[in-house]
From TrEMBL:
Record: residues binding substrate: Q17, H116, N160, Y295, W393, E400, W401
Family: Belongs to the glycosyl hydrolase 1 family.
PANTHER family xref list: GLYCOSYL HYDROLASE (PTHR10353), LP05116P (PTHR10353:SF36)
Catalytic site: E161, E346
Reactions mediated catalytically: Hydrolysis of terminal, non-reducing beta-D-glucosyl residues with release of beta-D-glucose
Pfam families assigned: Glyco_hydro_1
Protein name as it appears in the record: Beta-glucosidase
Keywords: Carbohydrate metabolism, Cellulose degradation, Glycosidase, Hydrolase, Polysaccharide degradation
Organism: Faecalispora sporosphaeroides
Molecular function terms from GO: beta-glucosidase activity
Enzyme class: hydrolase
EC number: 3.2.1.21
Any one Gene Ontology cellular component term annotated for this protein: cytosol
Length: 441
């Protein structure tokens, strides 16, 4: 058994986590956040990161060496528009022109994410996601991007994980801009993110000369059953979309229900009430695919009760639980609710990788993680769920937000003092999986 014919195999990255070259762009909220004492482990920043802006040609060759057919990456809004609006930055455009042209020349399809958390600081100082202005500015930016890259970029994601940049950025304060808003303020951020998404979809379609595929990258709680019975499966599906009062923002429900169904469940009435009837018409836009970021899930019993994890439960270096079963069931629940084909836009494991005495990077834990998750994803596809592709997070090690650089998630090891790239054992394993379309799993 293998994955469907024409299955897309790729890897992913984001601008702030990899590009570096802070001098070539405007400041983002992450530049300001990283400068705060105690905000980032070891006081690290994304000022240099993987030096991706200067080394993108090498990284594209790594994609080609792995046999990948697609690369998902984000544009830096402050590199394109240093103040968020106004005149574009020519140097930023030149960089993305060069990257996209090289990808196409090598037969690699660009999947472009418009926003992966690096909001221009100038917009944050005018309210950030608390302000409707940010949604309007995002629509201008999206339309410009679609016009500029017309004919070259045919796959767009509007926002990456609004659950995180709203909840962690404006709710818990763990991420930039580090605010802890009460519920009305958090509802306003979520409403403006939804409006930004809808306006961006409209702007991209209006600006595109050729047909384009548009989605949004969502994450959140997904549940899988303790027992594979009809009753337990139904309970796991219901639990996946319940919005808990204190963590409502970490659900697919608030974003995808609003964007695709044009409504919200009763437990999210406060958010629904913060959106005007006129904005609801903008927010609900037809999409071509879902992009789903899946790392772990929660097991539930027939009553929908969460199963407590035993001591010593397998976890990644970032302490995220290893739950491959979620890859079989989670996409199924999402498809049943939203009826769209999907890409697994992020999946991977953090490890404390190091260079061994033989000069190589051996990462058997990551190989085992990928093997288990991809086996489950293959079963999901075999069950009729239209999963169109898989993007490993990430291509290279990178800046892992408030955790800094200690934990590594790449297929490619980055020796940060020299920026030397080393293919890990998992890269060879993944390349073989790609080459055989998962037949040898």
């Amino acid at each position: 058994m293998e994955f469907p014919k024409e299955f897309v195999w790729g890897a992913a990255s984001s601008s702030y986590q990899t590009e570096g070259d802070r001098s070539g762009r405007g400041d983002s909220i992450w530049d300001e956040f990283c400068a705060r004492p105690g905000a980032i482990r070891n006081h690290e920043t994304g000022d240099v990161a993987c030096d991706g802006l200067r080394r993108f040609r090498e990284d594209v060759q790594l994609l080609k060496q792995l046999g990948l057919s697609a690369y998902r990456f984000s544009l830096s809004w402050p590199r394109m528009f240093p103040d968020g609006r106004g005149e574009p930055n020519r140097a930023g455009l030149d960089y993305y022109d060069d990257l996209i042209n090289l990808l196409l020349a090598e037969g690699i399809t660009p999947f472009v994410t418009l926003y992966h958390w690096d909001l221009p600081l100038a917009l944050e100082r005018r309210g950030g996601w608390r302000s409707r202005e940010t949604a309007l500015a995002f629509a201008e930016y999206a339309g410009f991007v679609a016009r500029h890259f017309a004919g070259r970029v045919r796959h767009y994601c509007t926002l990456n994980e609004p659950q995180c940049f709203v909840g962690l950025g404006y709710g818990t304060g763990e991420h930039a801009p580090g605010l802890r808003l009460e519920e009305p303020g958090l509802f306003a951020c979520a409403a403006n993110a939804l409006l930004a998404h809808g306006l961006a979809v409209q702007a991209i379609r209006q600006a595109s000369e050729d047909p384009v595929q548009i989605g949004a990258a969502s994450t959140g709680k997904l549940c899988y059953p303790l027992h594979d019975t009809a009753e337990n499966r139904a309970a796991a599906e219901r639990a996946s979309f319940l919005a808990q009062e204190d963590r409502w923002w970490f659900t697919h429900t608030w974003f995808l229900d609003a964007a695709l169904l044009g409504s919200l469940p009763p437990e999210l009435q406060g958010l629904a009430d913060s959106i005007s009837p006129e904005d609801w018409q903008v927010i609900r836009q037809p999409l071509d695919f879902l992009a789903v970021n899946v790392y772990n899930g929660t097991q539930v019993d027939e009553r929908g009760e969460y199963i407590e994890r035993i001591p010593g439960f397998p976890r990644t270096a970032l302490k995220w639980p290893v739950t491959p079963q979620v890859m079989r069931y989670g996409p199924r629940w999402l498809y049943r609710r939203y009826r769209l084909p999907m890409y697994i836009a992020e999946n991977g494991q953090s490890c404390n990788d190091r260079i061994f005495l033989d000069g190589r990077v051996h990462d058997p834990d990551r190989i085992d993680f990928l093997h288990r998750y991809l086996l489950e994803l293959r079963e999901c596809c075999a069950g009729g769920v239209p999963v169109k592709g898989y993007f490993h997070w990430s291509l290279t090690d990178n800046f892992e937000w408030h955790n800094g650089y200690d934990e590594r998630m790449g297929l490619v090891y980055v020796h940060y003092p020299t920026q030397r790239r080393i293919l890990k054992d998992s890269a060879a394993w993944y390349a073989r999986t790609v080459r055989t379309n998962g037949r040898l799993l």
